[in-house]
User: Fold histidine kinase from Arsukibacterium indicum.
Amino acid sequence: MKAVVNTSSKTTTIRSALFIGVMTICSLTICVSMLASTIQDIKQQRTSLVNELKSYASIIAFNARASFAEAEKTIEQTGAGFADERENIYNDFAHTEESRLRSFEAVPMFHNIHIYRLQQSTGKLVLYSIYNARGVGPYPAQLEKVAAFTEPYLSDNYIELSQEIRLDGNIAGYVFIRASQQELQRYIQNRILIDLFIIVCALIVAYLLTRKLEQRFTAPINQLLQLVQRVAKDKDYHLRAPQNSIEEFTVFGKALNTMLDKIERQIIKQQQTETEIRELYQGMEQKVNERTEALKSSNQELLNTLATLHQYQNQIVETEKMASLGQMVAGVAHEVNTPIGLGVTASTLLQDKLTGIERAFNDKKLTSSQLGRFLNESKENLGIIYRNLERAASLISSFKQVAVDQSNDSQRSFNMSQLINEVLLSLRPNLKKTRHQLLVECPPDLIIESKPGPINQILINLIMNSLIHAFDNIEQGEIDISVSISGTRCQLCYSDNGSGVPENIKKRIFDPFVTTKRGEGGSGLGLHLVYNLVTQALNGKISFESTLGFGVKVLIDFPVINNSHKK
Assistant:
């Protein structure tokens, strides 16, 4: 399995990322909702205005129909048969209708009202009556277009519509109305101003709440980060994480405190053991000087001393088990900072884009394509923030599980593939400094019941042994880990293509204090610890094969309970 690490030189704080993300979401939500509400309200107001004009047009058409009927009745009574006589009668009634139309001066939105009459003799429309509002000039007669205005026509400033005048079921003329939209425009302007005021107030409230929210989340993160940095720098393991009201931080703090407790106790035990060993060696030297002539007694005393050393050796082995856990504390801070840094970088980019959009909006140069591109980029950046915060949570969870498993020898059911991945994640600070490849072959759904703690420690020691010894002079090595199940036995095969083991130490590779790095920091307890964990903790068997220059192969066989079929 190849470990790929992404790094970024540009970083910012999680406080800024959280603030920008929340404010962006709130701003977009408020603006979109207010825009949708305003558009819907404007449509309703315009529809209401059109319906009101239609009602007025119906009233005018009703009065005009009555006027037409009275004119026809007068023509029948007088027996006027000539066209001029008929037109004179209609003109008399037209003056009456104009006086009626002047009553619409009380409605400021009416600018022009025309009543057209259909001449029976010619079949053409003629202007029957007209009304022009004060201060508004006459509007040209719409003899040719009036029939088309039965469907209202809306321009920027006016609404034009017409209503048929029917007499005895036949079209006798039309009413044409031309009304101003100034009242509607003023309403729209006032509505926009109110919406802008509401948006500003909402953003101020969102800003204050976001500041409170970011303080609530970033304060415990900074406390935990400072604690880990102090522990890594000063090796001060008596420090403890404070209590927190947020559950995730409380759980992480408890796990960190538990780990620090165990490390502190192990360090105290190690110091006591070293003191006892020094005292023991001093006592041995004194006894040897005193009993030089009593060889038999000295030999017996030496045997007793060797037995005591074996006991202390077991204590040193236990100390070695916990030492690797302490080393991971320094690496976890950097590993958690990496995804947080990526998320902060994405949030900073989103802030820059938002500034550009805001500038374009204020300059009234914002285009739909620019807004669409900004929305797409915002989704991508928010996705990056979410994925990296989720990755940071995953790193913390894996680190916690590795820490618990290393200090716990109890038996439980677990996913073998997930355990291996957690071990590799905990060793990421060591692996990412190299170009070595690590390949894992394990069924992803393999669930066994065994002791994950010893298996965890075995894998860590084998991998670290390869990194320190096998690949000492190799830039790009390869480690293979394969797991298989046969009945109630689990076979774990570990191999590398490193420098191998010399023949003179291969047969005693599992003995304590056997190392090729004597005087260079090697304790010689790594593979001895692996042997004890396999044979004692797991009740299994271990075999070792190696040829100098061709790497090593370690085969571990131990009993398990296969729970894969119980899922």
Observations:
- The two ends are 27 Å apart (CA to CA).
- The first strand starts at residue 110 and ends at 118.
